[in-house]
Write a structure and sequence with these properties.
about 260 residues, alpha+beta, N-terminal domain of MutM-like DNA repair proteins, Helicase, Ruva Protein, domain 3, 2 domains, 6 helices, about 20% helix, globular
Length: about 260
Amino acid sequence: MPEGDTVFQAAARLHAALAGNILTESDFRVPRYATTDLTGDTVEDVVARGKHILVRLPQRTFHSHLMMDGQWHVYERGTRWRKPGFKARVVIGTEQVQAVGFDLGIVEVFPREDETEAVGHLGPDLLGPDWDPALAADNLAREPDRPIGLALLDQRIMAGVGNVYRSELCFLRGVDPATPVREAGAPTAWAELAHRVLYANRNRTARVTTGDPRHGRRLWVYGRRGKPCLRCGRPVESGSLAGPSDLERVIYRCRACQR
């Protein structure tokens, strides 16, 4: 599932292409909204909220979530799409550009005042104007027995961390992902580190957590199963971690560096 920085960048591209312009094209290729027509509306704003994207119109909000495979592409009129048309779930556009949402996991249109029903459950957005490290830390501390590797993925605690950052944050803190929150160190330190790392990557095309942008050295442990740890040289391990209400997701760790 895309991380918060990926969604932030997608929303920024949509905002640059659409904001302040009148929609001249509206094609919803999902049954529930097949008759929905946004043409004639002016796009006022496009914002990311955690892993959600909100396209704000004068009276309505178009909400999408990329889930596992979704992508937003922006094309100049007449440009050939880079993905097949049958994967497009939404096409909206102006006289100059088309914005195509491929394989979107969630597609909704609702009155502007109903935004809180769609995203009000989210914790502070790591890349948003509402970022509040104290609130994120308080949220994290509420379930002290929960493994830190599961808590970090809970968007109700703080919005934006995905599986890549979950593994990288645990490495940077020197903590095994299965460690309970109460034993994992100060919640404020986790919240501040998560914000610092995502903020540093908010405009990068290649995600970097090591400080080294060279290929193969950008991430400490994620995707490096069997490869030597960039800090100690011991092979990086992978496994899974899941709780009663959590999806099982792969984790990466160095046993020597993460006690």
